[in-house]
Design a protein that fits this description.
- By secondary structure, the chain is an all-beta fold.
- It starts with a strand and ends with a strand.
- 31% of the residues are buried.
Length: 124
């Protein structure tokens, strides 16, 4: 069972930046993809960004394209989410997740391991 530990959430003003990090308890690059989802109160969980280890392709949710950037460090079993120009609608709990095998990476259904989540609040 892979353990995922998220860090870096907090309170930030609109237009500000935050960096989230996720560390896996074992070699995450043995799996297909690792990324971030988020869920706001009363809303469904949605993709933020994910990276496939074999090709290092990155995918982003429409709401964050051009503002967020995901990167991965194989040797450290980590992924980092750099979030810029944050908006109040980015307020949510952000979850790190791993998908073990090849498949559709944009949907949370195929992800096998999840972190506990870290809260991001964007407010003035």
């Amino acid at each position: 069972q892979v353990q995922l530990t998220e860090s870096g959430g907090g309170l930030v003003q609109p237009g500000g930046s935050l960096t989230l990090s996720c560390a896996a308890s074992e070699r995450s690059s043995r799996y297909y993809a690792m990324g971030w989802f988020r869920q706001a109160p009363g809303k469904e969980r949605e993709l933020v960004a994910t990276i496939t280890w074999s090709s290092e392709n990155t995918y982003y949710g429409d709401a964050v394209k051009g503002r967020f950037r995901i990167s991965g460090e194989r040797s450290e079993n980590t992924v980092t989410l750099q979030m810029n120009n944050l908006k109040p609608e980015d307020t949510a709990t952000y979850y790190c997740a791993i998908r073990k095998s090849y498949g559709f990476v944009l949907d949370d259904v195929g992800y096998n391991y999840w972190g506990q989540g870290t809260q991001v609040t964007v407010s003035s």
